[in-house]
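Lay summary. Proteins are chains of building blocks that fold into shapes, and those shapes determine what they do. In this project we predict the shape from the chain. Here is one chain we studied, written as its sequence of building blocks.
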Amino acid sequence: MKITKDLYQSSLVLLTDFYQLTMAYAYWKSGKGEQEAVFNLFFRKHPFQGGFTLAAGLDYVIDFCRNFKFEKGELEYLGDMKNKDGSPVFESAFLDYLQNLEFTCDIDAVEEGTVVFPNAPMIRVKGPLIQCQLLETPLLNIINFQTLIATKAARINLAAQGEPVLEFGLRRAQGIDGALAASRAAYIGGCTSTSNVMAGKLFGIPVAGTHAHSWIMSFETELEAFEAYAEAFPDQCVFLVDTYDTLNGVKNAIKVGDKLRAKGKEMVGIRIDSGDLAYFSTQARQMLDEAGFPDAKIVASNDLDEHIITSLKSQDAAINVWGVGTKLVTAYDQPALGAVYKLSAVKNSEGVWEPKVKVSQQSLKINIPGFHNVKRYYSNGKAVSDMIYLEDQEIDPRGVVIIDPIDATRRKRLMPAFYKEEVLLKPIFKKGEKVYTIPSLHEIRERAATQLESLDKAHKRLVNPHLYPVGLEENLHHLRMDLVLKAKKFENEQEAE
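And here is the predicted shape, written in a compact code that computers can read:
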């Protein structure tokens, strides 16, 4: 599905920061526009103080790159931009260059639904500097949000312990774009359905819903409202019972449930949207069981998240289905993932790749140089370590040392010959041509479930999770340190002059 075309009917090439275009112009002006470069997209810290992150958004990235084209309207807009002195910001020859620009990059990426960790590349882009630079903002925009929401959804589903989680967040989502992307990402993260009908149509996500308090209030009595709803939807009756008095609402639901049963139909359940969910759910369960409805589900909503669900579980709340909205689709308590996109290598005039490093006083912000990839090692189906390594570096199967990119004292020795390994960055585009077969959203969701199952429970704890080992292969660590020390020496020499 061409997502951007379906939603907007035009190119999204201007979905970028202005400085990406000014840099592209300066690259072109200086003759560096076609110089090959490598950029990596990665994040530095897990969201929600968690122990894992779930990758999402690659399908949107693929769609964006396939439709990467400066069309007439975009070029006219750029051509009308003026400097303070009235001269054009971009000269016409550069706009001609953009008009003829064709996407020719290589892109390798972790597949959607893959569990990922800080500092390891999620996407690697190789190609002309101008193209790589123009991809930065849209790729970050796509990956940051969908990965954040997929991770939040996975945490909520872990808290629900296998019980269905329905995504109800459309009305509270961050606009149309945010709502659709959130519904998609939430499904990847394990939600069973969405209330968002457009997301159901676009992505094939099952849709679900009950009725609102307004439905009840539009009738003289709650019982009449339930009876009318049962007449309209005899096979899908989930009654919202807390409009007036929750326990009396349960009694009315039971009365209508009896009438449905007399017609050969069965009440699906009730929904509670306010009050003490632990107390009302256990009372409702007792009432339903005593009335002969042991299979009736109790759906709970009302600003739920993973922490509230965990608390309700600890109180033995009798809830079977969880409706989660605001705190899921807005990634409540973590406004952004914080992924970044950094240059790691450029090809010089002799055709040799030169690794590049960004030096910082904060070790967290020193990027990983060179042309590298990530391997994940498994033992008996469980992920044990990730290694970031230079692609041209031969890995000794008898033993390799990985070194934490933030704390060099944290080291681990691996014997690759004893593990099953997976290379995480998969080819997506080669010279601008898509070479990757896009899985269905349902297959991506299944991958996410498998990936989460491969993690030890200690890494999936919602509070104070155990740190999963991710490290630089020793040669890459030394390359990085050498470049940092060289840059610092140069900086000190400049200060001394």
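What the prediction tells us: The mean pLDDT is 95.
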